[in-house]
Amino acid sequence: MKVLLAGLCTVDQVQRVAEIPAPGEKVRSLSMDVAAGGPATNAAVTVAALGAGATLLTVAGAHPLAALARADLEAHGVDLVDLDPDRPDPPAISAITVRDSDGERTVVSRNAHASSHFVTSLRSLPARLPQPGDELPGCVLLDGHHPEVAMYTARWARERGIPVVLDAGSWKPVFPELLPLVDIAACSSLYRGDDPREHGVPVVITTAGPEPVRWSTADGSGAVPVPVTQARDTLGAGDVWHGAFAYAVARGEGDVPGWIAFANEVAAERVRHEGPRSWTAAVAKMGEGQS
Predict the structure, then answer these.
(1) Residue 191 covered by a domain
(2) What sequence ranges are listed for the domain Carbohydrate kinase PfkB (predicted)?
(3) Tens-place pLDDT, residues 105-143
(4) Tell me: the pLDDT tens digits for 24-78?
(5) What's residue 121's pLDDT?
(6) pTM here?
(7) Is residue 175 part of a domain?
(8) Angstrom distance (rounded) from CA 3 to CA 185
(9) Is residue 122 part of a domain?
């Protein structure tokens, strides 16, 4: 079973602190980690941890900092397809602070931006996707970053009848074009933009942290409760949720409420663990239970 993911890859510098500093204040961190980050990237790590094949279409580039992201993804079983391997610019860097008492975090990041190499490199995208005779993914997950990649991949999946899941954490300019190609839009409570239903998306989901996850289809609607847990680190919890949801869709079993319930359980497991990757071993056991 495979999932194809397309979107942002950053380098995350994560500092854990007793208290998030006020403006002008300096504090000493309790720990520091460096890992690959970004919505599609963390989702890909989740898919791989659950035991499925995870292929990530993104832009990393040739800058030395990109090697940090590459090494992390390789160590966690993600197949990285770099669509702009010669880009000299550094990758997007996220500066993250996590509060030790409750796992709440702050994030400062520059999202994906195109380089002079990128338009040319997109010409290689068709050849980097599964070819005739190759195993097709059971699901495609997009985060809306690198819009040209998102659009091409969504059309490719639609032509092959592969379900497309959109991580709509926040509104992006490509969404009016992209939403008509999406089968499931999973929006955060912070999403502000067009209602995906207005663009013909058949399944719309809204996550809201520890609150129940709401869903609606043409046949009905409902809400799935989130497990009560003590949060130690909320960084990437939404990304992990989307990765687990895409994994559940790719398995081809169950229904929307069941997929949500599984994603809720996996995201709850993630927030119980400190650090950007410490949760993967526990999630791997959850994947073994699905096989």
Answers:
(1) yes
(2) 3-187, 197-278
(3) 888 887 665 544 455 567 778 989 999 999 999 999 999
(4) 999 999 999 999 999 999 999 999 999 999 999 999 999 999 999 999 999 999 9
(5) 62
(6) 0.93
(7) yes
(8) 16
(9) no
Is residue 10 packed enough to be buried (19+ CB in 10 Å), middle (13-18) or exposed (0-12)?
buried
Residue with tokens 């663009």: 199
- Domain of 166, in residue numbers: 2-22+29-111+137-279
Domain assignment present for 252: yes
Residue 228, number of CB atoms within 10 A of its CB: 7
- The values of phi and psi at residue 253, to 5°, are -120, 155
The closest of 101, 94, 93, 95 to 30, measured between CA atoms, is 101
Going by C-alpha positions, the residue among 48, 56, 37 that lies closest to residue 141 is 56
Residue 211 three-state SS: strand
State the pairing for strand pair 211-217/139-142: unpaired
- The C-alpha atoms of residue 185 and residue 207 are separated, in whole angstroms, by 11
Count of domains observed in the chain? 1
* Gap between the Cα atoms of 18 and 152, Å rounded: 44
153-196: pLDDT as tens digits: 999 999 999 999 999 998 999 999 999 999 999 999 889 988 99
- Judged by phi (left if over 0) then psi (alpha if -120 to 50, else beta), residue 50 lies in alpha
In 3D space, the residue among 222, 109, 239, 221 whose CA is nearest the CA of residue 165 turns out to be 239
CA torsion, ordered 88, 90, 92, 94, to nearest 10 deg: 170
Angle at which helices 237-251 and 256-271 pack, to 10 degrees? Answer: 140
Residue type, 243: G
**Beta carbons within 10 angstroms of residue 79's beta carbon:** 16
Residue environment code for 121-137, b if the CB has 16+ CB neighbours within 10 A, otherwise e = bbeebeeebeeeeeeeb
